[in-house]
Amino acid sequence: DLMVIGSANIDLVVSLPKIPKNGETVLGGNFLEVFGGKGANQAMAGHRAGGDIGFICKLGNDRYGNDLQSYFTKTGLPQEFFLKDNHTPTGIAQIFVSEKGDNAIGVASGANMTLSPADLAPFIPIISTAKVLLMQLEIPLETVTYAAELALKNGVKVILNPAPAKDLTEALCKNLWLLTPNKVEAEFLGETPITNLTEAETAAQNIRAKGIENVLITLGDQGCLLHTENLTKHYPTFPVAAVDTTAAGDVFNGALAQGITQGWCLAEAIPFAMAAAALSTTKLGAQTSIPSLGEIERFLEQ
Ligand code: ADP
């Protein structure tokens, strides 16, 4: 019912006293290997929020690819959507985290960037009959554009989380039902700085003028701003004791898409997504901090 097409990575996280400078070696680190990639995080967030998810991604035929595949399968994502590239390694992110909480991240996209429009051929029937298609920009733009066109033609609502930000073509924008940039991405796409809600609205208008039906800017602990043809509305965030906001946006997008898939309107799906994202900031990590449907429902009842 909800299709997600996107990236899957292994995050190689090294915690250090400080981030190494050019030419420097810093000792004293701990190492952690975790499952990541915006596509995988968002698919897992939709799945945990109660969704029936098909997650299409491309892995390498290597140890990391096998690790990801068995992890996804164990958590209940259907296997038939995992593609393998025999010539390109699985995507990895090398992450340095300092004691102060700063980070530096290098990504080798690997097989994520070989996910081509032709690779989607076996999945055309299932994409065409989905309720919602959710994508990000860690796979080739031409694949995102192709899938969005196929989806819209068949009446599927297309949600694009434009992360990491890059210029969007007209051909892509006209097929999008909803774009969900965060503040930094909205500043880039809306070509204006955002320091308050008025400026966020200006950015949202500029982005919507590209031919996108609805724009929803997430603003971290300031909540989010929805801009549609008929209304502009700010949703303040749920106050929580946040300890790690990594992947808050991913959890937000996965839960939001799941809400829309259930037939909810944006006014219903946004608070659900904000609750899921707020909960995720109260725990460390990305995949490890994704709340379940029960947790989200209990939080909303409080
Ligand atoms: P990204 O992780 O992509 O940068 P944001 O930081 O904008 O995305 O966060 C996405 C959503 O997560 C926000 O719209 C908000 O609902 C929720 N959120 C983020 N940070 C907090 C926080 N400190 N407290 C509560 N909710 C938060």
Automatic annotation (TrEMBL):
<dbReference type="InterPro" id="IPR011877">
    <property type="entry name" value="Ribokinase"/>
</dbReference>
<feature type="binding site">
    <location>
        <begin position="249"/>
        <end position="250"/>
    </location>
    <ligand>
        <name>ATP</name>
    </ligand>
</feature>
<keyword id="KW-0119">Carbohydrate metabolism</keyword>
<feature type="binding site">
    <location>
        <position position="283"/>
    </location>
    <ligand>
        <name>K(+)</name>
    </ligand>
</feature>
<feature type="binding site">
    <location>
        <position position="285"/>
    </location>
    <ligand>
        <name>K(+)</name>
    </ligand>
</feature>
<keyword id="KW-0418">Kinase</keyword>
<dbReference type="GO" id="GO:0046872">
    <property type="term" value="F:metal ion binding"/>
</dbReference>
<keyword id="KW-0963">Cytoplasm</keyword>
<keyword id="KW-0479">Metal-binding</keyword>
<feature type="binding site">
    <location>
        <position position="138"/>
    </location>
    <ligand>
        <name>substrate</name>
    </ligand>
</feature>
<keyword id="KW-0460">Magnesium</keyword>
<comment type="subunit">
    <text>Homodimer.</text>
</comment>
<keyword id="KW-0630">Potassium</keyword>
<dbReference type="GO" id="GO:0005524">
    <property type="term" value="F:ATP binding"/>
</dbReference>
<comment type="similarity">
    <text>Belongs to the carbohydrate kinase pfkB family.</text>
</comment>
<dbReference type="Pfam" id="PF00294">
    <property type="entry name" value="PfkB"/>
</dbReference>
<comment type="pathway">
    <text>Carbohydrate metabolism; D-ribose degradation; D-ribose 5-phosphate from beta-D-ribopyranose: step 2/2.</text>
</comment>
<feature type="binding site">
    <location>
        <begin position="37"/>
        <end position="41"/>
    </location>
    <ligand>
        <name>substrate</name>
    </ligand>
</feature>
<feature type="binding site">
    <location>
        <position position="246"/>
    </location>
    <ligand>
        <name>K(+)</name>
    </ligand>
</feature>
<feature type="active site" description="Proton acceptor">
    <location>
        <position position="250"/>
    </location>
</feature>
<feature type="binding site">
    <location>
        <position position="289"/>
    </location>
    <ligand>
        <name>K(+)</name>
    </ligand>
</feature>
<comment type="similarity">
    <text>Belongs to the carbohydrate kinase PfkB family. Ribokinase subfamily.</text>
</comment>
<feature type="binding site">
    <location>
        <begin position="9"/>
        <end position="11"/>
    </location>
    <ligand>
        <name>substrate</name>
    </ligand>
</feature>
<feature type="binding site">
    <location>
        <begin position="218"/>
        <end position="223"/>
    </location>
    <ligand>
        <name>ATP</name>
    </ligand>
</feature>
<comment type="function">
    <text>Catalyzes the phosphorylation of ribose at O-5 in a reaction requiring ATP and magnesium. The resulting D-ribose-5-phosphate can then be used either for sythesis of nucleotides, histidine, and tryptophan, or as a component of the pentose phosphate pathway.</text>
</comment>
<protein>
    <recommendedName>
        <fullName>Ribokinase</fullName>
        <ecNumber>2.7.1.15</ecNumber>
    </recommendedName>
</protein>
<feature type="binding site">
    <location>
        <position position="280"/>
    </location>
    <ligand>
        <name>K(+)</name>
    </ligand>
</feature>
<dbReference type="InterPro" id="IPR002173">
    <property type="entry name" value="Carboh/pur_kinase_PfkB_CS"/>
</dbReference>
<feature type="domain" description="Carbohydrate kinase PfkB">
    <location>
        <begin position="1"/>
        <end position="292"/>
    </location>
</feature>
<keyword id="KW-0808">Transferase</keyword>
<feature type="binding site">
    <location>
        <position position="182"/>
    </location>
    <ligand>
        <name>ATP</name>
    </ligand>
</feature>
<keyword id="KW-0547">Nucleotide-binding</keyword>
<dbReference type="GO" id="GO:0019303">
    <property type="term" value="P:D-ribose catabolic process"/>
</dbReference>
<dbReference type="InterPro" id="IPR011611">
    <property type="entry name" value="PfkB_dom"/>
</dbReference>
<dbReference type="InterPro" id="IPR029056">
    <property type="entry name" value="Ribokinase-like"/>
</dbReference>
<dbReference type="GO" id="GO:0005829">
    <property type="term" value="C:cytosol"/>
</dbReference>
<keyword id="KW-0067">ATP-binding</keyword>
<dbReference type="GO" id="GO:0004747">
    <property type="term" value="F:ribokinase activity"/>
</dbReference>
<feature type="binding site">
    <location>
        <position position="244"/>
    </location>
    <ligand>
        <name>K(+)</name>
    </ligand>
</feature>
<dbReference type="InterPro" id="IPR002139">
    <property type="entry name" value="Ribo/fructo_kinase"/>
</dbReference>
<feature type="binding site">
    <location>
        <position position="250"/>
    </location>
    <ligand>
        <name>substrate</name>
    </ligand>
</feature>
